[in-house]
Write a structure and sequence with these properties.
By secondary structure, the protein is mainly beta. 4% of the residues lie in helices and 55% in strands.
């Protein structure tokens, strides 16, 4: 599998959702991680999504990744690093990676508004 270099952008405290299709995949993933860090060498994540906790199967070879608003509500605007890694048959593949630009929001939505 080839690693796709893709830069993403999202608003802090908003939802980020996207689909991933893994060509030729005929079985379910055993593992999947979508994670972001301030520094790729750091051990501390700003968020990490896993199978059934932000990454869900849509169809054979198709998955949905969702970062919820609460995952980034306290994250400062700036540029971070992310990757999407999957596990199949004891093999690990990084299928996406790049920079995640977090931008500030202007409008705040409060409950009952």
């Amino acid at each position: 599998m080839v690693t796709q270099e893709t830069n993403l952008q999202m608003v802090t405290g908003d939802t980020l959702a996207f689909g991933v299709e893994i060509e030729g995949l005929t079985q379910d993933l055993q593992e999947a991680y979508f994670s972001a860090k301030v520094d790729p060498e750091s051990e501390e994540y700003i968020f990490s999504k896993t199978l059934q906790n932000g990454i869900t199967k849509v169809d054979t070879g198709k998955y949905r990744v969702r970062v919820a608003p609460e995952d980034t509500a306290d994250v400062q605007a700036g540029t971070y690093y992310y990757d999407l890694r999957i596990g199949i048959n004891d093999d690990i593949y990084t299928i996406m990676r790049g920079k995640l630009k977090m931008v500030f929001d202007v409008t705040e939505i409060t409950e009952g508004a």
